[in-house]
Amino acid sequence: MRPSHIETILDREFISCNAGQHTPVMLWGPPGVGKSQIIAGIARLRGVPLIDLRLSQMEPTDLRGIPFRNNDNVEWSIPSMLPDARRHGPAGILFLDEINAAPPTVSAAAYQLILDRRLGEYVIPDGWAIFAAGNRQGDRGVTYAMPAPLANRFTHYEVEANLDDWVNWALNSGIDARILGFLRFRPDLLFHYDAAHNPVAFPSPRSWEYAHRALQKFGDRPDLLSDALQACVGQSCGVELKAFIDNLENLPDIDGILDGSVSEVPRGIDLQYGVAAALVRRARESAGDVKKLSNILRYARNYPQREMGVMLVTDLHRAVGQPLFKVPEFVEWANSVAELMLYDFKPVKGEG
């Protein structure tokens, strides 16, 4: 399932806590696909605390607490890391990460916490949602088969990398436009992990963020940049990204496109993707300048393949939002691709 859909599901699950309808959620997926990031995003969206417990690094007593004698009875101390309404607030997210990498004795200690929202005398506050995440067994991570009693305490969703969702995140996170252009050119490299070869570095949503950082740190050192990119996304992918970046020296004048003096579209498909990414980034930085948006829309109509123009305008909308629709040239552009849009987005059988 694509990340944007899972975000909506998790947000609904969080909201449902106060109505007593919340069900714990388990996210499955390969390493680097963004499971933890999605859950952290819900906490930021709702402005609530996130308690991240790495169960693979814990002992059973870390959850259950330490026993102590109280007169003739033995009681259990409540771990301070568990949600407490007075210390942490009445609402939040309890995130049990790497849950299927935890030893069976630890996961067994979590059974009651997950299903009954309590552990001995401790009770999870009503406003707290329980989310968990783990790698699949075929991903060559350190995992245990999840026992049926534990698995049956969750609803389960598998996270898949999705380029449109990642681009939307990247535009909001300031990721280098050259990486966006490259991944539009090579969408199959957003995530490429072959568990059989157990690679150390491989392209993933997480490692593309590392590649962005490498471009900022080593952009002025071409002798080091190639090695730095390979260290982030793997050898073959890093070499290809470096070649793509080097070829961007042949891009047309982006400022000329924005002021309307340049209209020619480069012939190379890689350069076309590079121009599109650069224009989207500049449009976002210009805070919705109507003149620049108008010229970008005119330029989008010049792409030999109309699908490329649609991609450019779609990313442009992700970058600037609703103001794009108020630009007079948007109607002209929409009319120029109306046939293509109707063909691509005709309703499926049974829809109105």
Overview of the molecule:
The chain starts with a helix and ends in an 8-residue tail after the last helix. Strand 3 and strand 4 form a beta hairpin. It has helices spanning 3-15, 35-46, 60-64, 85-88, 104-115, 148-151, 163-173, 177-185, 205-218, 222-233, 235-247, 254-259, 269-285, 290-300, 306-320, 328-336, 338-344; strands spanning 25-28, 50-54, 67-70, 73-76, 91-97, 118-119, 122-123, 127-134, 155-158. The longest helix is centred in the last third of the chain and has 17 residues, at 269-285. Residues 342-352 have low confidence and may be disordered. With 352 residues, it is α/β, with parallel strands linked by helices. The radius of gyration is 25 Å and the shape is elongated. Helices cover 49% and strands 11% of the residues. The protein has 17 helices and nine strands. Helix 7 (163-173) packs antiparallel against helix 8 and helix 14 (290-300) packs parallel to helix 16. The relative contact order is 0.10. It folds into two domains: 3-158, Rossmann fold; 163-343, no CATH class. The strands form three sheets. It has a five-stranded parallel β-sheet with strand order 2-5-8-1-9, with helices on one face. A two-stranded antiparallel ribbon has the order 3-4. Strands 6-7 form a two-stranded antiparallel ribbon.
